[in-house]
Amino acid sequence: MGRNMALPLVMALVALVASLPSASPATAGTAGAFDNWLSANQKDFAITQALYAKKAVGDTGNSIDESLAKAEDNKTTFVVDPKGGGDYKTITAALEAVPEGNTRRVILDLKPGEYREKIFINISKPYITFKSDPKNPAIIAWNDIAATLGKDGKPVGTVGSTTVAVESDYFMAYGVVFKNDAPTAKPGAKGGQAVALRTFGTKAAFYNCTIDGGQDTLYDHKGLHYFKDCLIRGSVDFIFGFGRSFYENCRIVSIVKEIAVLTAQQRTKTIEGAIESGFSFKNCTIMSEGGGDIYLGRAWGDSSRVIYAYTEMSKEVVPVGWDGWEVKQPESSGIYYGEFKCSGPGSDARKRVGWAVDLTEAQAKPFMGTHYVFGDSWILPPPTENSPPSKKTSSGGATATSPAASPSSSPESR
Ligand SMILES: *[C@@H]1O[C@H](CO)[C@@H](O)[C@H](O)[C@H]1NC(C)=O
Ligand SMILES: *[C@@H]1O[C@H](CO)[C@@H](O)[C@H](O)[C@H]1NC(C)=O
Ligand SMILES: *[C@@H]1O[C@H](CO)[C@@H](O)[C@H](O)[C@H]1NC(C)=O
Ligand SMILES: *[C@@H]1O[C@H](CO)[C@@H](O)[C@H](O)[C@H]1NC(C)=O
């Protein structure tokens, strides 16, 4: 990519700074607000880091993790049906029935319908699966935004706005719609962050799911994550965090007529383990429903890392592509933004910022597969088989269906 375009580049950056919403994930209308946001986040991180200090990127072996194999060999299914007739009417109730220190795969078979629940999966409950039918899905929806007041009378903040938060490991979801249906804030509006899904556990896989919201839709917070055949809709910074994640065959859709920013990846030297993070997109489609310009990413962390490979980009993707945001000299920072063999009118790399990389095959390779997230140790196929019948009969009595009788599909060791 040409680097002899200093003047147009400077002009483009000036125009960009003037045109970008200044406030997400930071609610930074002013430097003061930004500092407040930063210190609030630092406080958050201090707490969570103390709790999760030992849980960095994790065991990256190349055979299925032993604990996972055991969990899969002893699975059980809870049927959740809002209309009754299942084992539980709400996801919250089903999750309460999972013991702390859980060691078995617990599949929540979610019958179609809307679940108006705000869900938090505690770190002590690993191996949970949300299973639904992509053609007739379970829709989990809530509508908190960062400015919503919590029980303590204070704004819940970005983390607290989440509809579904997963803090445990080995989570899996298939065919589920995760939604934050708060009215769409003006892009960048203060306190407008409205997270639909936050993944803070490691080794989580999402298949045929929809993650739907506006500003800050998917908090790909921390850990190894895999998103396959998913639809992700949002406006500003709608995939953000310091997850190390591989997005394959996903549709990434901007819903705004103003400016959308697809990613705010937070790779940084200042958070333990975060320097290993980065988002990799392969064979995805980027498009706009709202018609507004789209940026591929802007740097939240000092070393933000995002790769797009074989991805189709609609015409709304701006020629410069990327933005350094708060990073003063992106060209000499640790930012790593790259593209490889993308297509579509938005993929023309000739006017990209000079510090983005037109990757060679060798450079792209480490990012272009489940090996990027050490998938061999944990990625299993989605649970598409039919579930055993509910433990409850329609008359409410218990039946003899035992977990051992459920169709067993042990993990394939690869
Ligand atoms: C399966 O899980 C149940 C419930 O946690 C436990 O009591 C049982 O011992 C487990 N079975 C095996 C073979 O691990
Ligand atoms: C997770 O569960 C444990 C045990 O019940 C509890 O002490 C802890 O506060 C919970 N964590 C969060 C973040 O709610
Ligand atoms: C999952 O999504 C992909 C891509 O949209 C589609 O081809 C596939 O049929 C879906 N799988 C199921 C089981 O719905
Ligand atoms: C690319 O993604 C589409 C779905 O968006 C899928 O149908 C197709 O098979 C994928 N191609 C490859 C090579 O994975």
From TrEMBL:
Top-level taxon in the UniProt lineage: Eukaryota
Keywords, ordered alphabetically: Aspartyl esterase, Glycoprotein, Hydrolase, Signal
Record Gene3D superfamilies: Single-stranded right-handed beta-helix, Pectin lyase-like
One term of GO molecular function: pectinesterase activity
Documented EC number(s): 3.1.1.11
Biased composition (Low complexity): 390-414
Signal peptide feature range: 1-19
Catalytic activity: [(1->4)-alpha-D-galacturonosyl methyl ester](n) + n H2O = [(1->4)-alpha-D-galacturonosyl](n) + n methanol + n H(+)
Region span, Disordered: 378-414
Coiled-coil portions: none
Family note: Belongs to the pectinesterase family.
Its biological purpose: Acts in the modification of cell walls via demethylesterification of cell wall pectin.
UniProt name for this protein: Pectinesterase
Organism of provenance: Hordeum vulgare subsp. vulgare (Domesticated barley)
